[in-house]
Predict the structure.
Amino acid sequence: MAVDEDAAKIIQLIFHKYVNEGYGAQRLSRYLEEKKIRKPNGKNFPNTSINRIIKNPIYTGVIRNGDAQSAFIPELQIIDQETFDRAQKIMSDRTTHHAETPLNLKGQSLLVGNIFCGHCKNRLTLTTGGRNRVRKDGSIYHDVRARYQCHYNVRHPGECDGQSGYGVKKLDGIIDRIVRYQLSKISAASGEDIVAKQNRKAIELAKARHRLATVQLAEKQRELVDYQNEGIKVIRGQSKFDMEFLNELVSKAKAEITELEAAVKAAREELDIHLANADVERKEYEKIKTWADLYDNCNFAAKKMIISQFIKSVYVYRDYTLEIEFNVSFEEFRTMATECQDQGTSEQPLVYITA
């Protein structure tokens, strides 16, 4: 088996559009047809074929047949495992109600599914409305405006004390500036410093516990050897101790050694967990660093995907006061508050940022 380089580029394009720009299978099918990209037999890619491609692990270098699958084959890999896993999560989320992954990336709003009314905690929905306006030259045009609407407020007047809706342009502008600010801080910071600061104390404490338990175990093992050597002296009549007393000491030492071996194992497992967490956070930082590098230059759909992964939820209160929960675990960004001044106004919405 070998990789067909031309076909591989199509597969990579499909995964890129699906993961980074939020294309669904149907939209990808239309996109490939518009670009005249077809199968070797000349037929187009139906959405069913694209779904099968997205779910097929062979592109990660693993051959599967039913429940059996091969080991990783590097020369067959054309999609990295992280991209493949992200695609599976997106596909799973899109079949689940209220998933955090945007179901529709064609609309001109940055937030989809992860924005809520801060007062009644119900999800905000996107609505549009407009009216005819007259230009200076006398021509008439329809001015369409989009709003995030609290559907519960509209249907249950008096039960929610928040606003009925919030302008998409204004709220998205605030979110965009906050995301840019947060990503710029991450981009400017040292990933190693952040991860080290987050995990240094826990790792150092786990290492200290492991070292202490190891030293205590070694000392107790030496003590057991001394008792056993003393037993030989008793047999030879060269010791001041009797055998019964030495047997008690040996039994006690063996029991303590068993406990210390368990303590060493537990300390090692704790240390391994902290080291693994540091590795996970290092990879998370690298992913977010990539978002920071891409955000200013990517298209609107890609920005929407980045925001859906970067922001877990946004709660909106009166006068555009926001509470934002980020999908970021770094201590540097856990408790941070900033003010974001709206362009063209003197309003300064207070933003509570958590993770």
